[in-house]
């Protein structure tokens, strides 16, 4: 449904003789609603018993949430399981009501997205009635830590497994972690693109948390605040210069666009399967680093300033499985130095023997020259070469003496 202004009074969907409809998803795009029309729409949509997903994108709500709660409740329960609201404009969003009385209409919801819609809180009383909700996306809104405590109060969102709070105005990682500890079933948490800045030494997290996204949060180091239960951790696009954490269950680690000069130590993350260090400051990879990750299946080390040294190239050319492990190989692995091979693909560069073993080659040349001289001296001594040289020199001197003029 596109580009409309809904004005519904007494219409009903029962007039259609083909009920029940087999519509499963309904999308409103660029539509405009009022409080009165919203109440009527919510009642009418219940006639479509097959409807399980409702979506509204780039719509305008001209109202404050003063819906006819009694009429909506009398019309029975909703069959919708997924609601997605993206870029909803509410002119007076700060005056929007808390939707008290809608509790009976939301307890069947399993997935809820309210993104880019200036959400700054959800009333605790309402949040407690999302009893079946598994997935909640509040990305790109106006949530702050003080309001988050109200939104995630004790007993709210009791079944929630996935929570997306990215692109909000959260400032304290410690307080954010404390808030989500009230979600006992939480597994997946995205708090990326918030300005945390610093990471405390210790934090409390939900016991079952396995996936954590902390990318683009302005952190400069990682501490024991990171929960040891994690299987997937994303700390991309920060200012990290190192990564030294004991994460025994970690399987995927994303460190893209940081300041790392070496790979993290494998001992502290022994079960790692996937790692990305793309866009860091790595100068190369060594055989010792590579083989220390026993379970590594995918490594993205592209877009780094590789110094194509003899040692690095030797490892690359003699490690047979490198092509299967490195993501983007060979196109995205480019030499930055030495100057003679800058811009060339790492896998295509072969340095000469002189470039790789200069000191050895010079030593060999000196040794050969010395041996030649030694052989010449020995041969000369054996065959009296010195006497012959002296006689030859005397003869030459005699030949050069000028003849005396006759008297």
Automatic annotation (TrEMBL):
Pfam families in UniProt: LRR_8
Entry's transmembrane regions: 360-381
GO MF terms, alphabetically ordered: signaling receptor activity; triacyl lipopeptide binding
Principal cellular location given in the protein's record: membrane
Keywords: Glycoprotein, Immunity, Inflammatory response, Innate immunity, Leucine-rich repeat, Membrane, NAD, Repeat, Signal, Transmembrane, Transmembrane helix
Membrane topology: Single-pass membrane protein
Presence of keyword Transmembrane: yes
Keyword Repeat: yes
Leader sequence segment: none
Domain of life where this protein originates: Eukaryota
Subcellular locations according to the entry: Membrane
Domain named LRRCT: residues: 304-357
GO biological process terms held by the UniProt record: inflammatory response; innate immune response; toll-like receptor signaling pathway
GO cellular component terms given for this protein: plasma membrane; receptor complex
InterPro entries for this protein: Cys-rich_flank_reg_C, Leu-rich_rpt, Leu-rich_rpt_typical-subtyp, LRR_dom_sf
SUPFAM superfamilies (alphabetical): L domain-like
Protein known as: TLR2A
Top-level taxonomy: Eukaryota, Metazoa, Chordata, Craniata, Vertebrata
Gene: TLR2A
